[in-house]
Amino acid sequence: MTEIQDKKQFDLEDRTLGFSKDVRLFVKKIPRTIANIEDGKQVIRSSGSVGANYIEANESLSKKDFLMRIKISRKEAKESRYWLTLIDSGNIIELEKERLRLTGEATELMKIFSSIMRKSC
Fold first, then answer.
1. Model confidence, pTM
2. Residue 8 reports pLDDT greater than 70
């Protein structure tokens, strides 16, 4: 792998880690309703899985395994976006802005993983 490709790989690892950490910080701030507690648990799981599967893809032993892990990362980013959409920010402007930013980041990650899949086929 070239140095530039290697740097991009770790940048995406850092980006997915940052996304997962930001989701966790956001969930700590949202109003504690039954729905938000359950949706918060789900978004924490799916956001962490985005990066975990990307790391697994980078350590894969075959192209087939690599593509499967990238597909899972994309799926988990899409799922994270879904759960973020369901979370109620309680009409708190700062929380709503953060929810929208995180939803946008999940969408961007989906697009990145889709691009990786297209280029890897």
1. 0.90
2. no
